[in-house]
Every structure is written in C-alpha cells, then in structure tokens.
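Example record

One chain of 402 residues, shown exactly as stored in the release files.
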Amino acid sequence: MSKGGVQGFQKDRLSQILAARRLTQVQLASMVDVSPATISKWRAGTQAPERDALERLAGVVNVTPEWFTRAPGAKLSLPLFRSNASAHVAARAMLEARLEWAQDVTAALMEYVDYPDVNLPSRDYTDPEEITNEDIEKAACECRDLWRLGRSAIQDLALAVEGAGVIVVREETGIAQIEGLSAWSAVLGRPLILLSTDKNNGYRSRFDLAHEVGHLVLHRHIQRTTDNARHKLMEAQAHRFAGAFLLPAETFAIEVRMPPTLDDLLLLKRRWGVSAAAIIMRLKALELLDEDGASILHKRRSARWGGKSEPGDEDRRPEQPRLLRRTIDLLVEEKVMPLEAIPRHIGLAACDVEALAGLPEGYFQGKTNVVEFARLKATQKPVDDQPAQGNKVVPFRPVSKS
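Predicted structure tokens for this chain:
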C-alpha cells in the first residue's frame, strides 16, 4: 500500500515510462529532483508522489499527470523478438512499452469507431516442433484466401493486414537491430504489429510485416522462451511463412528461369516486391535450388552488391499504416472530438500519438487533410461538449487483387 501522496498513482505506469523513454531510476530521479530511493518507492508502490512531484514527473517524461492514475491495460502476449541477445534487453523493454502505448491509443479510439473484424487463420500449436513446413505453406495460402488476395503479387501488404483487423504501427525506434515485434491484445481482442522505420527499405519492410503475421498465425498459443534453439526455430518458421505468403509456390515458381542469374533476381524483386536475398531463400525452400545452388547465388550477390543493400532498394517506399491515422482524422472531420482534445483524451504527449498513429509531426497543431478510413459507432459520446454525430459509414477501400 502506498503512503501519502496522490491517490490512485499507478506504479506500473512508472515502470512503463522508464522503459518507453529508456531512462534509469537514477536519471529520472535527477530530472525530477528527488532521490533515487524515492523513485524506487514510487515504483514499488510503497509511496506515491505528492502533487507537485507528480507534476514535475509528468513534465519531464512528457505525459499528463492524470496519465499516472490510469490503470494500464492488461498485458499483451509476450512478443517474440528477432534478436534474443541479452545486449538488447533495454531495447526490447522500450519496444514492448511502445506497443502497450499503441494498445492504449487504439483502445481510446475504439470507444468511437468500429475497426475491421479480425480475419486471420486459426492455429492451436503449443510447441513449434509440431509445425511442419507443409503446415506453414498451408497457413500462408489460407491467409491469402481469407484476404481474397489470389496468388499474384500483393500491391499493398500494409493495407491488407489492416483490413484483416490487425493494428499496425510503424515508427522510428532508434533500434536498427530489431525490425519489428507483434503481440495479441486481450484488451482489444486483436493483435498489434510494430515495425521499425530505421531501415527505410520498402522490400525489407514488407518481408518484416509478413514475418510478424507469421508469428501471429503460427505462434499465438506457444509460450515464449529464452532457449536459443527454440527461438531460432520459431524465427525460421515465421521467415518461411513470409516467403510462402509473399511468393506463393504455384504462381511464383513458374516465373523463375532456372538457373536464375542475379539480373533475373532483380526482375523478380521488382515484380513481387521482395528482396533478392529473400527470393533465394524461397527458391531453396521450394527445392528449386539445392544447398549448393543457394550458397553460390548468395556469394555472387554479396560479391557484386555487398551484404547489406541491393540495386533498386530505393525504388519501393515502405508501405504506411493508415488505420489509426485515418481514424483520428475521421473523429475530427465528423466533429466527434476536437483536434487538441485527442492527445489529452489518450493521456500521452501529442508527439507520441503522432508517432504511434503515423501522423505527420505537428499534426495536432494544424491538421492536414487525410482521407477518412473507419466506421463510426452508432452511439458515440461527445468529448469536450462537442455533439455526437450519427452513424455515418465511411467505406473501407478493398484490397486490390491484381
């Protein structure tokens, strides 16, 4: 039980903000002008900050004081990170906190809009060892069928994923080693995916997104582990899913001239929106290349282009999430919520809401026009004395099948 101080102070919010801002208790204590021991007591819940200390705390970490009295939502399922290295513990904690904030933003907006229903293949695996390559291929095909994508190249994967009810966030994280993470939210009844923008490569970003969809489909009911062998297996399975989803066997294979040259790979890269390196992996998975053939192509690729980039990487811009951004714009356009009230309603700083929702910097100081995208609920609560509007439906643009 906390002694004295502000009633209702949520100690878990303090832990969350330390992770999100990548601050130590000592650093935060110096910023707030209290002792590290005081921060420890706040974090343990044995003491709550006084009003003036809470205001200083909120000011230095850029949230509202009231945010610290909001109970955090239920924990997300544990994400599976691409890197399992102990050196990245703080980075993983920061990204998990950002994903929890994305949950908060989405939950606050769900009071006013209906998002697309979740539409993902259902799998009940509890051990990665029981998942076969054939299972992965079938799951990828089922996902395409559910989303009515056919078997051709996907024009906009981010749009397709959001159309399936997944919340996608893409922001600069400062952590280039971790391309993305995903988790299921009991609060939202839907999954979330966070992608890093630090590597501004549209081809790799698409693969990262498909990789996270693979985790959501294949590994939803599998306990996360620190065992490296098990972790690598789950990563390999998500990679295989991404390749099968983006490069479906029955249509992709017939376009490949065997044996493929590097120039052939570049043509396929542009056609399918997948890197040459990922195409080599897919050809090996389909047994169109054996181990030696794939190794030779990888070596030629590295010798000609280097290990980190390929010709044409700049030709495809990373696909941008739209759902949260257009939801916020819809609420403002329909006068459900004033522009400046939205960050206050969520409790986070305007810059954090802008980053998580994919809004341009300074959006809440002067909104730019964005096409609406979401469906308002039939009954809405007005905010700041703004009248609620009727149940207007804004059409959700269908995914292209071309």
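Notes: The chain has 16 helices and five strands.
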